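Sequence in, structure out.
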Amino acid sequence: MPLYTDLADELADAIRRGALRPGERLPSVRQARASRQVSAATVFQAYDLLESRGLIESRPRSGFFVRAARASSAAEPQAAPASPEATEVSIGDLVMQVLGSTRDRDVVPLGSAFPSPRLFPLRELARCGARALRALDPDRLLEDLSAGNERLRHQIARRQALAGIAVDPDEIVITHGAMEALDLSLRLLTRPGDIVAVESPTFYAALQALERHGLRAVELPTDPRDGVDPDALARVLERHRVAACWLMPNFQNPLGSLMPEERKRALVAWLAQHGVPLIEDDVYGELHHGSRRPLPAKAFDTAGEVLHCTSFSKCLAPGYRVGWVAAGRHAPALRRLKTLTSLATAVPSQLAIAEYLAQGGFDRHLRGLRRQLAVQQAQMHAQVEALFPAGTRLARPQGGYFLWVELPEGGDSLALQAQAATLGISLAPGALFSASGADRRLRRGLRLNFGHAPNDARIAPALEALGRLCSPIRGTHRSGTRATAVESTTAVQTPR
């Protein structure tokens, strides 16, 4: 990366952490040049970049200053209480009904589970794949079955080590995306009728997996900022015989919560004490908005009981379907289950990603992707706050690409989803993320995807239309101004 980008990222992180406060003057160009041992041009470029992001401002004859953050009047959502009872899961029909339209490119993808594919280096990946295939030793095809390509597993272990996570390459099993990693882990650890502890709300695909395998869910109250409370988990473990936990400590879907490291440490220790394995879904860990990747729970695992599952689908290669499990002491059994289930993961996809990682361009791509998503998150947060009715609560995620919105009292996100669908707008209502599919506590919640904003001019008009639909008085926004009735326009089209 250019030096000015590194300098800008370091200063941006200092601003986010509060080390540089609003109104505080940045070092002069001369001071920064001397202290950093860089050219004046590098400092100017870094300051220009920070100014373009809205983090600092220049004042004539005075220098550069940290810009005051726009005050947000929207409160954050609070953790909803969860039922202490285990429940049968019934979510599949609702998921298919709500999400069936998200594949239609004419639909505004606010309910999509994926970011824009335009954010990823797909052409470079294709070139890497072609080079790797030309150099492929045919005999390696058989050697790489089951566990996955050895070169890729070593690249993954190397990246984990640099992030402070000790993972042996032999512990890693390559899978068809993160969903196969998670599903294999669940099948390995449970039997029909078992109880699995999950977050509330939680990722709907986790609930689909529990339903598919005849498992019961016990829900853990999850704070939109700090995630699951280990004390709540302790109470569940005292009440139920839990076969496994399925949790997302980093940038949880749908809330966007980030569990503090001390909570992760306590969580892993408590589970190990009770002999309960953790299936950790960490697909968004690389999409942090700060300067450092948050450690996963796996980093605190000393007993080999954390099955760390993730993939390249959300951060590098959508559609390539390359994920993996760092399965700890369960790796041999999981490798056998993988062999019996799907035998192997597609070799060309593995080779392309291994080649790309070896070239060293991944971190450069990630820095750009993280910056873009952070900008888009701030933009959508501001738009929703301005356009939705007073009393709307908004999460403040520090990573990922989902924004959790809680409508005011009386709001119904499932009804809003049905109305929005007639305008060609998708969204993910809160009912998708509860074990029963009809949890009244989540009735006012909805998840919006801000991973498409830079490439889709329909996003802003769609948010304005949603704001009108969910206003207590039709057409009245937070600002109190009167808006025209929702109409079909070129920006918000009725789906074909």
